[in-house]
Amino acid sequence: DAPNGSFQRIGKLSLVDLAGSERLKRTEVQGERLKEAQHINKSLSALADVVAAKDRRMSHVPYRNSKLTHMLQDTLGDQCRTVIIVALPPTRANLDETIHSLQFSARLNCIAFEPPRTEAPTRAWMQEPALKPLQEDADEAVLAAKAEADRLRCANERLRAENEKLRAQAEDREAHIKEQERRFKDIQERLEETQRQLAAQKQLCLELIP
Prior knowledge:
It is built from six helices and no strands. The chain has two domains: 13-113, Methane Monooxygenase Hydroxylase, Chain G, domain 1 (Up-down Bundle); 132-209. The chain is elongated, with a radius of gyration of 45 Å. By secondary structure, it is mainly α. It has helices spanning 24-27, 32-55, 67-71, 73-76, 95-109, 132-208. One of its GO terms (cellular component) is microtubule cytoskeleton. Keywords: ATP-binding, Coiled coil, Nucleotide-binding. Residues 142-204 form a coiled coil. Residues 1-111 form the Kinesin motor domain.
């Protein structure tokens, strides 16, 4: 824990693609392929030994028997979560390998890993007499901040109400202006119609005068 009571937790994610076991008599590989297949089978055998030791809750788990198990020690140890995905070929010719893979994954699934420990920051430092005035100042600052927040919230609500009132007044004024414009347009249209009628009557009078 840090002096201020905080802590830092670091996690690790491992994604491992395990090669399938090789039946050397059936594949009949030679040369470099043969050496590679032998290394694969040896690593998978060491992994099976680790799983067996974990399943039997043995005090010694042979993680160092191969590079594979040594690398996966954090993944297969306590305080971890392990998930295995098995790819199985849908052919009768690979039935033995399929059964072996399922048995291996079932054994791994039966291992009871301990759940991760939960930690919480310690607050023992808050009880030290030398830091008590600081805690009191912090409490007063929190209360002052809450009071200021309440004041600002009330002021915000008051401004919002005034804003709504001004908006309503503006809408009323806009509606009044539109109504006045409509009335002015009607008066202008009637005036133009009256002027046309007067012009027509004037023309008629001129035609009647000899």
